[in-house]
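Hello,

I think I submitted the adenosine-5'-diphosphate job twice by accident. Can you confirm which output corresponds to this input? Input:
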Amino acid sequence: MADHFAAVLNPPSDGSAERLARIRAGLKSRHAREWRFRAYGIAATAAAIAFVVILFAMIFAKGLPAFWQAKMDLDVFFDPAIVKVEPKPVQQEGQSAADYRKAVLDWERAVTLVNWNRVIEAAVRAKAPGFQIDTRQVLTVVETNERFVLRDMFVENPGLLGQTVPVRMLASANVDNWLKGTIDRSLPDAQQQLRDQARGLADQLYADGTIGMRFAWNIFVNVDSRSAPAAAGLAGAFVGSLYMMLVVILLSVPIGVMAAIYLEEFASKGRITDFIEVNINNLAAVPSIVFGVFGAAVFINWFHLPLSAPIVGGLVLTLMTLPTIIIATRASLRAVPPSLRAAALGLGASRTQMVFHHVLPVTFPGIMTATIIGVAHAIGETAPLLLIGMNAFVASVPATPFDQSAALPVQIYLWQGNENRNFFEARTSAAIIVLLALMLSLNAMAIYLRRRLERRM
Amino acid sequence: MTDLSTSETKPETIPMHMTSGSAIIESSELGKGKTVRTPDKENRPVRVKARDVSVFYGPKQALFDVSIDIPAKAVTAFIGPSGCGKSTFLRCLNRMNDTIEGCRVTGQIELDGSDIHDRDLDVVELRARVGMVFQKPNPFPKSIFENVAYGPKIHGLARSKSELEGIVESSLRRASLWEEVKDRLHEPGTGLSGGQQQRLCIARAIAVSPEVILMDEPCSALDPIATAKIEELIDELKQNFTIVIVTHSMQQAARVSQRTAFFHLGNLVEEGPTDTIFTSPKEKRTQDYITGRFG
Ligand SMILES: Nc1ncnc2c1ncn2[C@@H]1O[C@H](COP(=O)(O)OP(=O)(O)O)[C@@H](O)[C@H]1O
Ligand SMILES: [Mg+2]
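Support: Only one job matched these inputs. Its output is below.
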């Protein structure tokens, strides 16, 4: 002891200059190594960031314009000469409810049979008086679903007969392409999507402001559509994905967390738990498409759950998410200091009390984050959904998880393959943006909850 | 587990010579007494009696046939070099070794005459009767109040909120912490200083009114001032509790304990009144250890 202090306080004077020189000689290469290592680190980080930036830039550059699409403001005249229908029936005295319903349905059928396209054509022509164009060409400017929009307006309010009302209509996908320049304007007429007259009309209406690029609400409120691409939206896919997310959360969190707690806190360590652990890790590495095959075989062929339903998708994604949640929960349980367990047990807490009063509360933020990241991962999954029929074209918003539905990632896949390439390219990126926004908000929620919970402790 | 039967019934006291430097060294003659005499010259009843306790971690034996009597309402110190099995033996007394995977205990341990390994004795009850304070202060990441109230709550000791508050206050008072924390009972216990945290852990342990408090090097993570406070506290607590303290500091053992047991390589080498152990140990190994020749 004493010798040691003496040595520190009185360093040997002879040879110290030589020692310092040696240290200094090494210093340069040490600094160089340090510098190189930092450079590698910066390069790696920069590469990762560059990939992310390029990815996002590409998606946003392509997808953002799709959120504004060509729409035309028309003054629609519900011309009694075209809309030739009886007044909407009212319930007569003594008429049974069934008879009345039948009368209304008959009336609605008559309304549907009205040639609404002529109403639209008249409204368009009114905006470009004197423009030489055939009827067929006029109708290629307006999206085909708009006649049903007019019909529904009229069914809703038969008093519109004989009146003129302003209506904002979707221009057709081809007009959108033409005006946005997603088709080469110098192509010969035969290769254009719109005929010469319609192109001229679109340009004229765009110039005078009748057609403008307006926010595309329809992406959020409409369901997918094949006949009217400009009207195609994500509502069905979004709700389908939400249902799946719900199923995944409701099933994988309790099952995964309970399994993790049992394995980590109660099961005695041994061959069996090792075996289970290895298999859970293997399960986490199973390609997602295999889960799809399993889901199709078990849930659909065996349990006869409906095809294309979010419940089946949710079950398959639950299987996929379970190992992630189990592994992450076990990791956060393992990170709890043994002293906390000892404190609880030493006071006479039972094992269950120890787990639920002390261990779980401190691991809760970790479990939560793992869950949300697992779920975010799951709802972005496409391959297994293809195998349980979720790539079917479904043009409706599912009312329950047992109804047929689309899903966001599958919708992206379907739109990406749509034959109307130049229109759907942007729409696909728009769908990707919606999916990313959903995931990022889930992740943001995870971070927020984690911060809050950690602060509370 | 109960390999040996205990048949002690004779209410003998163990003869001891208290005066330091005494030529005659007492031998505790285990197994004969119901009481143990401590340096304050009182015969105290035996609270914990261990006979031939051996502990195995997997195939490795860490403790060899330890037998000892621990007197009530006194401080018994376990000393010995690191790794000699002090903590292992301490954990036998409240069966914390049960929580260690692969740990096996043989031999017999009695608390107030009843076997702690008995099937009828619930380990939860045992731990309510034998509290523990750990080496590193380990308050729950909850409020100071919650920390102290937790034991009484799970054991159903308080019938009302006010009774619980009473228990919390008196426990904190007995742990000499009340004055320092009474205005911030609802702040996290982990925000206290190390010494305060350890006193909080002591308050938490005494809130269940245990008969025995086990302390495993309670001061090893604390500075000298905090250590002095805890030692003072231990001295007061022995009025009401039986205390067993593991310490690596012989000075601490000498300051706070009435009896000392010296462990070495998994064996209980020698135990007896503290001043006897420190002034005239019987065994050469004890002598070597207390004079600093190893450890
Ligand atoms: N959980 C454990 N698993 C395996 N061996 C252990 C464990 N705890 C203690 N031991 C071993 O038992 C012996 C006694 O340890 P311990 O009781 O902690 O000693 P001390 O408290 O006197 O320093 C040591 O050799 C140690 O390595
Ligand atoms: Mg120890």
